[in-house]
Amino acid sequence: MSTLQYSSVGASKRINLIPTLVLFVGAAYCILPVLWILIASTKSKSELFNTAAYLPSFNGGLWENLTGLFAYRDGIFLRWAGNSVIYAVGGGLLSTVIAASAGYALAKYSFRGSKLTFRLIVAGVLLPSIMLAIPQYLLLAQFGLTNSYFSVLLPLVVSPFAIYLCKIYAESSVPDEIMEAARIDGGSEFRIFVSVGLRMMTPALVTVFLLQFIGIWNNFLLPFIMLSDDKLYPLTLGLYGMLRVSGGQAALYSLVITGALVSIIPVVALFLSLQRYWRIDMLSGGVKS
Amino acid sequence: MTTATEKPSTVLDSDRRTSNRLLPPKRKKLRSSALPVFLVMPAVVLMAIITVAPAIYAFVLSFMGRKVTGGLLGGGTQEIFVGLNNYVAALTDSEFWASITRMLTVAVVGVPATLILATVFALCLDAKRARLTGFTRIAIFIPYAVPGVVASLLWGFLYMPATSPIGGGVIDYFGSTTIFFSVANIAVWGVVGFNMIILYTAIRGLPAELYDAAQLDGASELQIALKIKLPLIRPALVMCGLFSVLGALQLFNEPTTLRPLANAITSSWVPLMKVYSDAFVTNNIYQGAASALLLVALTVGATVVVNAVGRRLGKANK
Amino acid sequence: MKRRALLSVAASLGASLAVGTLISGCSTNSPSSSGGSSGPVDLTFVSWDPHMDSIVNIWNAANPDIHVSLVVPSQGADELVTKFITQNKAGANPDIVKVEYQSLPALISNSVVVDIGGYVPDIASKFDASALAQVKFEEKIYGVPQDFAPLVFFYRKDVLDSLGLKVPTSWDEYAQVARAVNAANPKQFLGTFSGGDPGWFAGLSQQAGANWWSTKDGTWTVAVNDKASTKVADYWEGLVKEGVIKRDPFWSTQWSAEMNDGTLVGWISAAWAPAQLPNIAADTAGKWAAAPLPAWKAGDATTGIWGGAAMAVTTNSKHPEQSAKFLDWLNTSEEALAAQIKTINIYPAATKGRSLPELDKPPVFMSNQPDYYKMIGQIAPSARSFDIWGPNATLTFGAYRDGFSTALQNGTSLSAALTSMQKTTVDDMTKLGFTLSK
Q1: pLDDT at residue A154, as a whole number
Q2: Nearest chain C Cα distance for residue B292, angstroms
Q3: Distance between CA atoms of C350 and C147, rounded to whole angstroms?
Q4: Is residue A83 part of a domain?
Q5: What percentage of residues in chain A have a pLDDT greater than 90?
Q6: Which residues of C touch A139 (CB under 8 A)?
Q7: Does domain B12-18+93-317 have CATH number 1.10.3720.10?
Q8: How many Å apart are CA A129 and CA A132, to the nearest integer?
Q9: Is the pLDDT reported for residue C242 higher than 90?
Q10: Would you say C331 and C144 are in contact if contact means Cβ atoms under 8 Å apart?
Q11: Considering the entire predicted model, what is its pTM?
């Protein structure tokens, strides 16, 4: 026994080489392209295609690109960034509120149609609504509602998956006893929802919000179909437009690369800063067995 | 295979299991109150608007067509009822099936790669005495925060001979065969971290006592990983598999962004692009509506199959 | 009967579901302006030209009563066409749209744009016949031509000079020069065949005498794979297979990089190219020269047209008269044309525009060729287009992109791709109910 003890103590000081190496290779695979974009953004237009790919440039290219990016078409890049924030924060918050209330109601109450509703929501999870983006466009176009903030936000404000997550979480983390106690204290059902339900569901709500936020921030197809006025574009669409040529217009590569870099930074920052609150285990929580 | 944009999805059977496990057998739910209906209402109404109504409208459109009414340029057009013509046209269009085949090819490369890499990374993270796991975990997760369009743009530059640091001058990343790997790679890159985290959390949730006994029996770490951990995270793996398959069906951003770079990618390269191109490029919204509904049917079918396979595998294991 | 009833119930159900809840909560930015004829009107104008805003500003400063707001789209011009058609029924289209010549018939056929002849009666006199033919159908004028874009051959003068090669004047010579360039340096090419630019290939076919669409007494003739076009396709297929011409699509990042680093030393393009080259090949400024397109028969000056666009007023516009006035100013007044030449580098379609002093100076990128515009002016009269663009030309163009890209990728026959373009076009026109001759 004592030898076993000894060897395990000794072992704990050693690095377990193979898994560590595997993870490093994986990290390199995931990080190097991002690093490349960081390096490429330091290069001026003429350096981009002419200098070694993995060597940054220090000739003021980054500054030139950044000023060029923010000056492009009177600062429309900032507007795109603002639009992305409107879509992602607005859509994220709305869908979280809607999912929280629906999930809570489905978890804690049984009412006429609740089972059917839940089944429909599960069906909704399995049918990504992006498949219906074109029909959504065609329908909205009948009412002249396309090409507006509304047309991009509407299809995003209800997420069956978010409702599903909220329901699972509410079932396991909002105890009936506490709700019962609150009722005895004379709290109305709505007050119980706000003060007990929502409070206890907070970690789930943060996670749902983050998932929605990133889903919307990264969304491309929906705004691509819905919008034709570039003042309404989110970043993804704006960058794609800059890359793509319209009517025989050459793309602005160094600006696109810099724009891509600038557009990833806030999301990565948000994730890293909210890492503590973000409970991804919720996702697998539903499938632990 | 999911584009970085979409949310993961879920597994039906696990849900049932969870509710059975987590809830007391006698559900004592509450008496009449208007609140639950009021709380559920926005979700139900909005879902009706964004999925049911467009689906109904698309269904109607899919039976219609456009006909010109004389004059050199048509002089005006009218909508006519064409029965199943649009469906027949879609189903007999070799491009429609070709787009499905290409999507499946990407999926055959990408889905297993995503699952295997994510599993390997998750097991390594959980391995004893692996170092710097905090850093590598975040590093592998970061691409998830990169929009699919940006990721494709980024990889496009990495593939392109003129800027490629990874041998684009020698290897043609946009060749007729390599293009499938190139597209799959972008998708895998975007979601492997997300899947890894899900699997890792599932592993962390396993009771530690399970390994202690095995360790005393002299099982190596590799054996523990493969024989104990892996089978136990099967439900999470099935879920990841389902996400990935659903993601493959929604493939759009990556090939669309790469298209200006590569002759090999056509306007109807994958099904969603085909739907887009039917509606917007060939300017036939009726055909587009029919293809969209066929794609929806395909998605539902695929989900049912993945679930059934997952369940069968589960039974076989027990 | 029953099925139709069912359908209409379903439609109204879908519609009322949507309307009932949508209308209440939201206000959309309806592009076309509302309000009566009195007071200032606000017009929306969709155009993708860079720097168009500065020209719109000139108008706005001088016309406080008719304010124009510019909307810059980033979609491809083809996708915009479909969007205009889809939005037409809901009345959500902007007042004025820029549209490539080949797409105008599709907009007319779907009643998206209106005849403006009545609002600006003298417009026809301001253009020559070939420019007017692009917007005039059945005696009605559906738009104002903006620019005119004859095909021109651009080449790296420094490279050809150093190799002692003469500028090719015939396609045979072009092939010889292409071989010589590639033989001198296997990494250098005289050009690329683009599977992504149907308008470019259409222009090359026009030069060879092709006539993809023509009409007689209301009957259409479609001949995408006619002899002339097949000859062009075979010619380029030969050069590509020989390996002396590349096959990277124009506008791709790869192509830009090759234009910039000297891999590509030639570009068959159109009059507007000098406006684009600074973005494509900035490092090579001053090294290029332009020459007339090589000819099929020695001494034949015929050239084709690549691109060019008109501007049209939509059916949805509540102020068609004011819109037409703005377009008249924008594309036929000396003031606006001079500004367009200077800032957008267009070669104007309007007759008056072609003698403006602004054309005495070459575009900045071509500063080493002072008579650039003079040369364009000489080429322009011998540029020919098809008799008419078909009502589904965008579909034909889409078929080109898919068919030619795939053929280039797989090394299969380009003329077979032409045949399938022909079939796609004919099938669609038949389905739509047009009368076709066979």
Answers
A1: 94
A2: 17
A3: 8
A4: yes
A5: 30
A6: 14-15, 18
A7: yes
A8: 5
A9: yes
A10: yes
A11: 0.83
